[in-house]
Amino acid sequence: MSTSVFALPVSLALHLLTSAAPASPSPATAPVKPAPASAVKGLSAAQREAAGRLVGPALTEGHAYARLAELTDGVGPRLSGSDSAEAAVQWALRSFKADGVKAWKEPVKVPHWVRGEERGEIVASERTRGLPLSLMALGGSAPTPPEGLTAEVVEVDSMEALAALGDRVKGRIVFFNHTMSEAADYGRFAGMRSRGPAAAAKQGAVAALVRSLATASLRTPHTGATRFDDGGPRVPAAAVSVEDALTLHRMLEGGTVKVRLVLGCSELPDADSSNVVAEVRGREKPDEVVLLGAHLDSWDVGTGAHDDGAGVVMVMEAARLIAKLPQAPRRTVRVVLFMNEENGLRGGRAYAEAHAKELPKHVAALEMDAGGGPPLGVSLHAGPGGEALLRPWLAPLDGLGAGRFMHGHATGADISPMEPARVPFVGVRVDSSRYFDVHHSMADTLDKVDPRDLSRSTAAVAWVAYALAEAPGLLARPTGPEDDGPPPKKK
Predict the structure, then answer these.
(1) For residue range 115-131, what is the model confidence (pLDDT) as tens digits?
(2) Which of 138, 204, 296, 300 is the most exposed place for a label (fewest CB within 10 A)?
(3) Where is the Peptidase M28 domain (predicted)?
(4) Domain contains 35
């Protein structure tokens, strides 16, 4: 429905705060079920009013999903250095202007890798007539010769297994296999994709294939970045679908397998691009900054709906709603839409460098980059007393299913360069259990994002941002690196 909470009495707006029970995803047309307003009993009248004006519209207006449709269906895939990435920058600036939120660009030099042609096949032999492979070049891959390359395949299931083979990989295609089946496995196996091809190249391999890092597949390959050392050997590298990885594994158990691979990717000179920065200036302490981050770039496949269009619209919507409050919060709320998270992290590093003198005044940083699922809770990486400071502010999150503290990560790739400045990190954790079904694939499109889940997480981000900016006290700065485990995904 489109009724604005601004037209509603505060009591009804408070009912909306607890209306979105965190059950299984519901259709966008499902009615909002009122619940008692007692969930916000720990807040003052002014805080309850702010809660109604932030959470209510996030749940009811559908603005975040409509904006996500603009980004995904309108701009499309937006890999760093591409024309679409620049179109996304201009879209963000126009959107912030329409919201009445001051915004500007900050320069970032980004890599410009282009995918090109890609195909492969298991070569015909006495055991097979030949089988096509569903594959996708990894970002940063070198090209094959124009006519392609053909070589025997050797399978490994870890970086250690690769090292143990030594010179036996020379002249071969190294196939990195693994057993990822749930989201928690991503961190265990992602190094095969990001570091494996470079390691194989150093041992004399002519190419690398990596089983897609995925929790579901209909023969859908999942791309991602792979890194080669400056001046070191580079080889063609591609992700193969889960089904094709299993086929390769079975056939290798029966004897020699050869693969023919054609990749036409290219590395162009670095391109000029931008982070997009916007802010709602604080009324009392404008030099103290609560940063909300997400990355504007995506891979060049699918349309980046979960990764990271959902995060982009969540933080943009938080700024829009906070800007519409009758009174700005005490501190400045700053949104940064980072460029080049996917294949370089140049935007995150550029922001930390450009704002190094300000970082001691960054009182909290929150990054949304785990998809558009429903919110689960709040996590912290701060000094002592952080939970005590924020606990009174969690009540409006109860009805969203997020009114609790969670152990584990509270960081993100783009805000990680701020860690040396000991900026406190806050996380709004979302359910990303099915995130890797579509992550980095052609299937990461708008239809995979549930509008109701997106609205709940948007509401949670808006309220947590406001709480951090309005709370009388500050989070203590952490004394060391985050030690509660890695974030749910590493690029």
Answers:
(1) 999 999 999 999 999 99
(2) 204
(3) 275-462
(4) yes
